[in-house]
Every structure is written in structure tokens, then in C-alpha cells.
């Protein structure tokens, strides 16, 4: 069985910078190859895991808290690094991506590959619209997500030959 390329934007568009993940998913809609699965998620582990299969290449777009904080700074994290962050507070969600990866591993539901592209947020108050630093970082984040999705499609195409 061949996999799919799945891009998941994690966040809440009504919590200012937390809406960056879903905003990126909308922005890449016409930039990624046909057949790319696009989804928005609130980050709840069970719902996240239901969005992918074991043979998929998953790209997650997330907003993170960092200390010291530099809103707009971009991060690229592998699944292995995410798994090592379990129990640390870096997500805007009750259970973070590290816990999702840990659960998927225990359930044997990890995808073929998982890459996280994250942006540091600064404003998580109620409301819509991104802060200026996060909005300024969006074009670079969109480019990175698009490139990762295109590379994953190439891998799938080469494996099917």
C-alpha cells in the first residue's frame, strides 16, 4: 500500500496567533500537488491520529510557546525530537504534539514520516488575526510546508516505481 501526503494545521483561529496552523493549510491549498490531504485540527490526540495512516507522510503546522519567546521565529522538528518533548509545555493545547506522538507510537499508529513546522506565537488572547511578527513569518512558513509536502510526494512517487 502506498501512503498519502497529509498536511495538518493545528490551532484555533479564534485565539489570535494560534490560528497560524489553519491559515497555512488554507494558503498551501493551491501550492501543493494534487492528492495532498489538507486538514485543520484542534490538536486533540485522538482526532490528530485519526487524520493519518501508517504509510502516510505527515506535515504538521503548529504554533508554539518558547522561552525566551521570539514571536515569528520558525522551527523545524522531526518526530523523534517531538517524542522527546513529552511532558514539557510547548503547545497551546492541553495535551501537546509530544503526547500525540507518544500515543500514536504505543498504538502502532505512527505515520511513515512526520515533520513539524512551527512558528513561535506571542498573542493567544481571544480574537481573530495574527500578531505582526507571526503574520510576517507566514510566507516563509508557507514556503517550508509547501517544500516539505512536495518532497514527500517525490518520495512516494519514487517508491512506487
Percent strand: 15-25%
Low-confidence parts: 86-93
Helix count, DSSP H or I runs of 4 or more residues:
5
Largest sheet, strands/sense/barrel: 5 strands, mixed
If you compute it from the alpha carbons, what radius of gyration comes out, rounded to the nearest whole angstrom? 15 Å
Order of strands across the main sheet: 2-1-3-5-4
Mean of residue pLDDT values: 89
Q: Structural class of the helix and strand makeup?
A: alpha/beta
Helix amount: 25-40%
Number of strands: 5
Outline:
globular
Distance between the termini: 13 Å
Written as H for each helix and E for each strand, in order along the chain, the element string is EHEHEEHHEH
Q: What key attributes describe this structure?
A:
161 residues; 5 strands; globular; five-stranded mixed sheet; single chain; alpha/beta; 36% helix
Structure report:
There is one protein chain. The longest helix has 28 residues, at 132-159. This protein is α/β, with parallel strands linked by helices. Helix 1 packs across helix 5 (132-159). It has helices spanning 20-28, 45-50, 79-83, 97-106, 132-159, and strands at 5-10, 37-41, 57-64, 74-78, 113-120. The radius of gyration is 15 Å and the shape is globular. Helix 1 (20-28) links the parallel strand 1 and strand 2 (37-41). The chain is built from five helices and five strands. It has a five-stranded mixed beta sheet. Helices cover 36% and strands 20% of the residues.
